[in-house]
């Protein structure tokens, strides 16, 4: 009896060249779509908002007005959140959120951390030497919130603005010199005051009387490496990189374009455009 022997055919025998081309294109298209979706999710997870936080009268609302409308009008201390959108490029915009600086309202920024790409802590470089303790207390809340974020949540960039830098300019100094002076003053005062808070906490003492309303707190967020005897330095902060910029606006002035002029808000525009 003769037995028929089945012959195994190659798996590709049933595919024509045109079928293979179509299948390859389908796989390539699938990979491209998957990559685009992944990149979009990563971009959205970083948020797309600029949070303006800081003490009252630091100039946050004037900043928002100048960024969004190209002009700054006289303002009063804000008691509610304000927001608007700014255009960074023809294809990209960003929401700017102004958080009130009043002690009872300032922690509202935490409600917007999930959508924040940047937190800009606005300081008045002209008065920081007088109210440094209160400003540092406010900043401590921000540092604590950032270092307390879960690993799954993107940490926003931290930007500290030495605002109203133009008030430090004299007839014998240039804008560049006044900007450098403003940044150095703000950075020095804040590092000194934050170090006071860190020392008080490391000694087992609740921070009391170092800020407004005799606040007592055991907040973290002030770690700076493990070097013995080191003091608080923004350059060594465990929470990540901190960028300092000097800014200013002319209240009551109007520019034909939102990004007009040298100095002023130009450093901030450039920072946001590079994100």
TrEMBL record:
SUPFAM superfamilies: P-loop containing nucleoside triphosphate hydrolases. It is found in: Endoplasmic reticulum membrane. It comes from the Eukaryota. Its main location: endoplasmic reticulum. The chain crosses the membrane at residues 20-38. Keywords: Endoplasmic reticulum, GTP-binding, Membrane, Nucleotide-binding, Receptor, Transmembrane, Transmembrane helix. One of its GO terms (cellular component) is endoplasmic reticulum membrane. One of its GO terms (molecular function) is GTP binding. It is a single-pass membrane protein. Belongs to the SRP receptor beta subunit family. This is Signal recognition particle receptor subunit beta.
